[in-house]
Here is the input.
Amino acid sequence: MPNEPVTDLALNTISINKQALVFVNTKRSAEAVAEKISKKSAGNAKTNELAEKILKVLSKPTKQCKRLAECVKKGVAFHHSGLHSKQRELIEEAFKEGIIKIISCTPTLAAGLDLPAFRTIIRDVKRFSFNGMTNIPVLEFLQMCVPYEEKIITNKGNIPIGEIVEKKIKCKVLSFNIKTKKFEFKPVEQYFKRETNKLIELTTEKGYKLKLTEEHPVRVNNIWKPAKKIKEGDKCNINVEYSDYHNLNRHYQKEEECVGLKITKKKIIKYPEKIDVYNLKVKDNENYFASNFLVHNCGRAGRPSFDKWGEAIVIANSDAEKQALIEHYLLGEPEEIYSKLAVEPVLRVYLLSLIVSKVIRTPEDIFDFFSRTFWAFQFKDMNKLKQIIRKVLKMLERWGFIQFVDDEYFRATIIGKRVSELYLDPATAIQLIKGIKAATSNVKDFAWLHLLSGTLEMRPLLRVKTKEFEEFEQLTLKFEGELLLPEPSMFEPEYNDWLNAFKTASMIHDWIEEKDDEWILEKYDCRPGETRAKLNKSDWLVYSCEELSRLLGKMNLISPLKKVRLRLKHGVKEELLPLIKFEGIGRARARKLFRAGIKDAGDVKKARFETLSNILTTKIATNLKKQVGAPGRPERLDKF
Here is the structure.
């Protein structure tokens, strides 16, 4: 029986000693494709060692862990958001080292990772969205990297890259032929643009500066290196000025190409709002000079740190589909970029943060500031924009996060300042505040988890399936009158979200009731990576509740909330909290000690060393005794 095209391409990649990324649209597909390829490939001692590390990430490996380990033994892996972060890290590093040859993945791997993928195989160009199955954006085929103002050396002078892209200027840009060591003007073939809120700024000893995205390669030390991996002290290869370009080939006819300008400073710049960044596709040499630095115009396939060229292959099932793919992705224009400020939750967050930081104070300041944003440029109707801003300002004022002082300027309240410092959506903050005001020190942990699960920050929620509807409705009766998030009528549109929040809270509650990853995967179809993501967000939101409780004078809630945080961190019942504070004791060891009647530090101190050794190990028993200041392993007298 013949193989599928994806399998054949993957096996061919391995046969020529190269590596490939296979992109599919679901987690299940990523796993299934990896398994199919692994059955036809072979591993080695290094892949077997890696498989063992994969299995040991979780104290009790799930079926997913075992499935991944079996694939890894054959030099193949799957990668998606459901994997534990440590497993993803192991796979990524092994791929960079050439141990893993094929990764079958969802788009979680496409964002900003510099991996040696000689070949990119895209099996699925459609993925599930709120509107059903839709095409992946053209932008996901592209990778852009330099902000608007960075100057490009062209045959028409120095021109900002943003201007070249926005106006689609037909020009030739100065590039460098790595093989011949010659400078050449090459035509721009394509123009690209996207958004980011994080850049890296490099500065040389002569003061040249360049801002670019962290994954973008720069020529340093005679190799291409992603900006995030460049270190202070690295030598920038060729750093020239426009006025010099006509003499370059005369000056640089040498065996070595490195001029030797050191990178003296590297810093990360984060922007409160996403900015546009740009890239060019340059004919032949595939590089150009941005603000006097030689940078590469690379894509996902054939990363310049690893390959001189690469392949990007999209699977088509018919000639008609092939033509449609060419027209849409290869010849089509990238989608329009829309300002995130048009989304109300984002506008709420940034408007409050700007008032807190005193960047803007008066209504005139506010309107003037936003009139200069990309949102205003795109929206065009300033009167409508002002109405939207006024609506959000009134909302923030009604919630008590800002005050309009003397009808002149806005000032953040103490609680508004803390909400901004906690990076909370003000709508989430007001929901938490309402819950805190209604809470007593006797509120059950589940009620807190349900309150957190009802926030926007916890999206996407676990969805209650049709066959589960009755089950979870029955479960809600156990907490009648005890929840902090009021239950809407089942006929209201908000009811489904409320019930989905209940299911999400149930999953997290089962975790802190010591259910393991396999149980949660089977019960909720929630993989370890997804579980950890929910736990991390829950920890942040519980901490936010602690801070808001202090400001609201609800000091009686601090201790219960700290207890919830500890349970979230360690995944234990309340009875194990005195034990998990010991170094080297997790929930499995704590449970063993508790079952043996050792329930707190006093019991550890009183317990015989041999008893602790039998429950755990001699090494751990010695460490426990040391932590409570008791004698460790008794010394034995030598027999004469």
Summary: The domain at 5-141 is CATH 3.40.50.300 (Rossmann fold). DSSP finds 25 helices and 21 strands in the chain.
